[in-house]
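Quarterly update, task 2.4: cobalt (II) ion-bound model.
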Amino acid sequence: MIGKLNHVAVAVPDLGAAAKVYREIMGATVSGPQALPDHGVTVVFVDVGNTKIELLEPLGDSSPIAKFLESNPTGGMHHLCFEVDDIIAARNRLTEQGARVLGDGEPREGAHGKPVLFLHPKDFTGTLIELEQV
Ligand code: CO
């Protein structure tokens, strides 16, 4: 059911500093910052050819990654994003098997303008999973 790994997301306390590490030290191509107020984050994408690294910085007072950064003040891996062909069919299949979808269970528009959902990390070996319909 799941398709390609679309991106690995890393939460960081300072997006500019993190983008600089990837751009200048790692020599990678890094996108410009994109504010996603609905998701409480600002993102940049690092293109590594076979997939992307999504660097996330908190945006606003109720950012969902603020708590994560309290526990991981220097940053850390936050979620994996897999591609699916049909996000509603994928959600229904997963919830029928007992997996929990975060929020109200309905897809929202993600960083690429495509529908996304997040799945509870306790149901996926301790890893927050994002599904993106491509
Ligand atoms: Co993501």
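Highlight for this quarter: The pocket of cobalt (II) ion is lined by residues 7, 9, 54, 79, 81, 130 (CB under 6 Å).
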